[in-house]
């Protein structure tokens, strides 16, 4: 492997303070896309990023608003008109917060402590976006170029945390402007700070909402208990039936199209340094559960999953009234793997609910219109080898190949644009995405920027070869 480039390394490490000041300024903008009260903050977040890109030198920076929250587009053409084009996808909106649960800092008052920056969006995903900008600056400084070695495009949306309801329309509407040879999706996680590992795929996701109705109104339990249909009890029963005693999902035909990892992928995953106790500590999971016959990494990377993420009924926030509730609801998230399709699994879920729910209850099952299919990077693509070598060059050791258990719009981008998708993120399992005290490791951000700088330098040679 190549030695690290001192010019890239020194540029980034000499400017860490300035780089982090920029991240902190952006994190202070509470761009919560799920809360209408923060709609203007999402606009301010988009405007902050536009100004930052212009300051960096991007000659083309635009704001796209397609009946939703703002998407930022940036383009910096290469000096060579025959150079390949790289499109970077990420997002600038953030998850909602429960202020009272944050102990390190207030969610939008970022602070640097012991090599970690705390605050909502530091890791998911404003830090990831800025790692790309830092990489570009280091690339230009180290090579003396007046423009990047590739034509570089950014697509940074403002609705990812609410399911990207307008992303497909934006991508199709602007497909000519977004045309690229390779897409890099930056909304993923690393394996660790010490062990380089390239993500080669993500699971798909399907989000569904199930509402079960019992009595026609809340009824005093002393009047009807034992004789009336209790929707909470029925919903809990259904949740319990979602998996069998081996941890397998019971939807009809659910596993029929599941593609098994190749033998090479299995060997690669087996080589990743893994310790169960360490994983439990980093993720704050209490124990290992799931499908029998598979290890932890197989379960979260290559096997489908079904989770109940919300269960609501009765009086969750008020003193109990002692009633049998009229309505109970649950939100379900299903994680899909190649070659499952979200539309097919949704039909399976509808069939399963209709077969399992008992007489005497009414129900309604709805699904998000923006479900995502799984995606795996073509294993022999030269861009993947370039990213692998760039990461190895940064950490000076060979990179593993992993997957991520979450979802991303990689399948959409690859299909519409006709370009393969790579994955590169700077998050870690212990960064507390979507939870209180989210943080980003400064080392991960700087190493990530160094890796991306090497990718910008090497990609033209690899793709031309």
Would you give an account of this structure?
Keywords: Hydrolase, Metal-binding, Protease. It holds the Pfam family M20_dimer. It comes from Streptomyces galbus. The chain has helices at residues 6-14, 16-27, 39-56, 126-143, 167-173, 175-178, 221-224, 231-241, 263-271, 276-283, 296-301, 342-356, 382-395, 410-417, 442-464, and strands at 60-64, 71-76, 85-91, 111-113, 116-118, 151-157, 182-185, 197-202, 204-213, 219-220, 305-313, 323-324, 327-336, 362-367, 375-376, 400-404, 421-423, 439-441. The radius of gyration is 23 Å and the shape is globular. Helix 1 crosses helix 4 (126-143) and helix 4 crosses helix 15. It folds into two domains: 6-202 and 375-464, Zn peptidases (Aminopeptidase, 3-Layer(aba) Sandwich); 204-258 and 304-367, Alpha-Beta Plaits (2-Layer Sandwich), CATH 3.30.70. It has 15 helices and 18 strands. It has a six-stranded mixed beta sheet with strand order 1-2-6-3-7-17, sandwiched between helices. The two termini are 18 Å apart. The chain has 465 residues and is of the alpha+beta class.
Shape designation:
globular
What do we call the CATH topology of the largest domain?
Aminopeptidase
Strand % is 15-25%
Return Rg in Å: 23 Å
- Order of neighbouring strands in the sheet with most strands: 1-2-6-3-7-17
Main pleated sheet: 6 strands, mixed
Provide the residue-averaged pLDDT.
96
Distance between the termini: 18 Å
Helix content: 25-40%
Parts with pLDDT < 50 across at least 5 consecutive residues: none
InterPro entries: Cyt/Met_Dipeptidase, Peptidase_M20, Peptidase_M20_dimer
Protein name: M20 family dipeptidase
Keywords: Hydrolase, Metal-binding, Protease
Domain Peptidase M20 dimerisation: 200-356
């Amino acid at each position: 492997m190549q030695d690290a480039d001192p010019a890239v390394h020194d540029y980034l490490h000499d400017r860490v303070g300035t780089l982090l000041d920029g991240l902190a300024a952006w994190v202070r903008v509470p761009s919560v896309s799920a809360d209408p009260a923060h709609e203007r903050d999402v606009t301010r977040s988009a405007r902050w990023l536009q100004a930052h890109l212009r300051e960096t030198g991007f000659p083309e920076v635009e704001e796209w608003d397609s009946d939703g929250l703002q998407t930022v587009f940036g383009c910096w053409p290469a000096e060579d008109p025959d150079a390949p084009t790289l499109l970077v996808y990420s997002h600038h909106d953030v998850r909602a917060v429960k202020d009272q649960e944050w102990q390190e800092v207030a969610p939008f008052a970022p602070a640097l402590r012991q090599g970690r920056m705390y605050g909502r969006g530091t890791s998911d995903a404003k830090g990831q976006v800025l790692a790309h900008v830092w990489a570009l600056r280091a690339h230009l400084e180290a090579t003396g170029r007046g423009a990047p070695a590739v034509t570089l495009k950014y697509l940074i949306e403002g609705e990812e945390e609410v399911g990207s309801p307008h992303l497909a329309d934006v991508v199709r509407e602007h497909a000519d402007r977004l045309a690229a040879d390779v897409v890099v999706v930056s909304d993923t996680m690393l394996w660790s700070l010490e062990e380089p590992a390239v993500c080669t795929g993500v699971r798909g996701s399907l989000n569904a909402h199930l509402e079960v109705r019992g009595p026609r109104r809340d009824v005093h339990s002393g009047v009807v208990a034992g004789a009336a249909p209790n929707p909470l009890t029925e919903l809990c029963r259904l949740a319990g039936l979602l998996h069998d005693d081996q941890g397998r999902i019971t939807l009809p035909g659910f596993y029929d199209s599941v593609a098994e990892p190749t033998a090479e992928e299995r060997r690669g995953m087996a080589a990743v340094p893994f310790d169960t106790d360490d994983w439990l500590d980093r993720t704050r999971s209490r124990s290992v559960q799931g499908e029998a016959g598979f290890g932890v990494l197989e379960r979260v990377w290559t096997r489908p999953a079904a989770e109940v993420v919300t269960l609501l009924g009765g009086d969750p926030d008020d003193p109990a009234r002692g009633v049998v509730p009229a309505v109970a609801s649950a939100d379900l998230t299903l994680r899909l793997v190649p070659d499952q399709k979200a539309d097919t699994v949704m039909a399976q879920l509808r069939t399963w609910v209709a077969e399992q729910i008992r007489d005497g209850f009414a129900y309604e099952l709805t699904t998000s219109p923006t479900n995502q299919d799984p995606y795996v990077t073509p294993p022999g693509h030269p861009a993947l080898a370039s990213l692998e070598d760039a990461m190895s060059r940064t950490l000076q050791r060979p990179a593993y190949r992993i997957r991520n258990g979450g979802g991303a719009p990689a399948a959409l981008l690859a299909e519409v644009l006709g370009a393969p998708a790579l994955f590169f993120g700077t998050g870690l399992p212990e960064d507390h995405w979507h939870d209180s005290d989210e943080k980003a490791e400064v080392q991960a951000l700087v190493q990530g920027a160094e890796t991306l700088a090497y990718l910008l330098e090497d990609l033209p040679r690899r793709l031309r070869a």
